[in-house]
């Protein structure tokens, strides 16, 4: 906040109007689609390597994608959304969070059936003797997460166990696909980074933005900006984690001839690399062009001062004109 109006000043301006854009910004949706396509490429690459047919490939991808939607969504609810925010008036933060959690319950009721339909995905993965219990455990985990999502993520008593079981399911999937050694650890990091990013992007688009639009006040903008910033910090780690773990996993195929990399399924990896390059561009341009939220100030709190310096000065001028 530079020498322009600081938050305290802004709050004194009783006619402060935050002009909210009705349309949802484009870039966050682009990021959501790119992450989804990259996850499809990865799951199809791994699934083809397991000898799965088209139906099983799609089902297994749906399992991982729906768990990622729910996982990152639950983390925003449990970790980025806070009951109170420094500098923001409590009643405004409460109002914003109440609206957000109402939206979140609605979205969770859409995600739950996806998780449920994807639940049998673990049964199509070929397993070595004695590990069948893990496949059944993963099916049970998806069914339980779906049931808890239907219970409502606004209640911590549902959201917390759902996040815990989901975390264990990601661990189970990493072991099922890549074993319990370091390869399993790399896969777990790849899946965890994907989950935090995709589910967070879902919350930003379908919860944070509509809630922000419903509360165009300085304090609510501040609270919304803090939540988005926490998510952006997580993405700052998820992005390099996905790239490094992806490269480590791709290195396992480095002995393959060129023809492998330019034909299916090998070509899926370079395609994922292109997707991640596009995502880096989106991640950098989003805040730059203030395209992470329709509410000025949520992308960058300084915008509040800029946006309202005009309003305030205009107001000050009116006051002056009115001889107030
Ligand atoms: C947003 C970007 C990305 C997402 C969402 C993503 C997601 C995924 C998913 C869901 C899988 C399937 C895991 C499984 O079936 O167990 C996967 C596998 C894989 N990913 Fe990624 N990935 C991304 C970027 C990358 C990048 C940039 C690379 C390479 C540089 C990469 C390399 C791989 C490899 C090699 C596998 C297959 C591992 C194997 O089966 O041996 N990924 N990815």
User: Overall mean pLDDT score?
Assistant: 87
Bound small-molecule species: protoporphyrin IX containing FE
Count of distinct structural domains = 1
Strand percentage: under 5%
Largest sheet: none
Can you tell me the residue ranges where pLDDT is under 50 for at least 5 consecutive residues? none
Radius of gyration: 22 Å
Number of helices: 11
Report a brief summary of the structure.
This protein is mostly helical.
What's the topology here?
Elements: H1 7-12, H2 26-49, H3 54-80, H4 90-118, H5 132-151, H6 156-178, H7 182-214, H8 218-251, H9 258-261, H10 268-288, H11 302-321
Helix pairs in contact: 2-3, 2-7, 2-10, 3-4, 3-6, 3-7, 4-5, 4-7, 4-8, 5-6, 6-7, 7-8
Describe the structure.
This protein has 324 residues and is mainly α. The protein has one domain (7-113, 192-323). It has 11 helices and no strands. It has helices spanning 7-12, 26-49, 54-80, 90-118, 132-151, 156-178, 182-214, 218-251, 258-261, 268-288, 302-321. Helix 6 (156-178) packs antiparallel against helix 7. Protoporphyrin IX containing FE (HEM) is lined by residues 35, 38-39, 42-43, 45-46, 49, 64, 177, 187, 190, 194, 242-243, 246-247, 249-250, 252, 269, 272-273, 275-276, 279.
What descriptive keywords fit this protein?
mainly alpha, binds protoporphyrin IX containing FE, 324 residues, 0% strand
């Amino acid at each position: 906040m530079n020498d322009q109006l600081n938050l305290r000043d802004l709050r004194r301006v009783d006619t402060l109007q935050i002009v909210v854009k009705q349309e949802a910004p484009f870039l966050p949706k682009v990021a959501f689609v790119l992450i989804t396509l990259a996850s499809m490429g990865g799951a199809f690459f791994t699934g083809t390597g397991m000898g799965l047919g088209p139906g099983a490939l799609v089902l297994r991808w749906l399992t991982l994608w729906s768990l990622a939607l729910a996982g990152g969504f639950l983390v925003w609810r449990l970790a980025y959304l806070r009951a109170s925010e420094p500098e923001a008036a409590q009643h405004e933060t409460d109002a914003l969070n109440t609206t957000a959690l109402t939206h979140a319950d609605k979205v969770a009721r859409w995600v739950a059936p996806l998780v449920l339909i994807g639940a049998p995905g673990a049964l199509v993965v070929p397993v070595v003797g004695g590990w069948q219990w893990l496949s059944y455990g993963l099916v049970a985990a998806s069914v339980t997460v779906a049931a808890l999502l239907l219970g409502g993520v606004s209640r911590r008593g549902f959201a917390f166990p759902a996040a815990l079981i989901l975390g264990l399911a990601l661990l189970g999937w990493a072991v099922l696909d890549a074993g319990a050694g370091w390869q399993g650890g790399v896969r777990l990091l790849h899946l965890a980074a994907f989950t935090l990013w995709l589910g967070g992007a879902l919350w930003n688009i379908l919860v944070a933005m509509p809630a922000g639009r419903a509360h165009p006040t300085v304090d609510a903008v501040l609270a919304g900006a803090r939540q988005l910033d926490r998510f952006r910090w997580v993405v700052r780690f998820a992005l390099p984690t996905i790239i490094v773990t992806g490269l480590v996993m791709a290195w396992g195929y480095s002995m393959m001839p060129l023809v492998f990399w330019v034909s299916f399924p090998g070509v899926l990896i370079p395609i994922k690399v292109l997707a991640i390059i596009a995502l880096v561009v989106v991640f950098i341009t989003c805040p730059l062009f203030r395209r992470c939220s329709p509410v000025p100030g949520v992308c960058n709190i300084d915008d509040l001062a800029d946006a309202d310096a005009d309003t305030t000065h205009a107001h000050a001028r009116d006051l002056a004109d009115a001889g107030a």
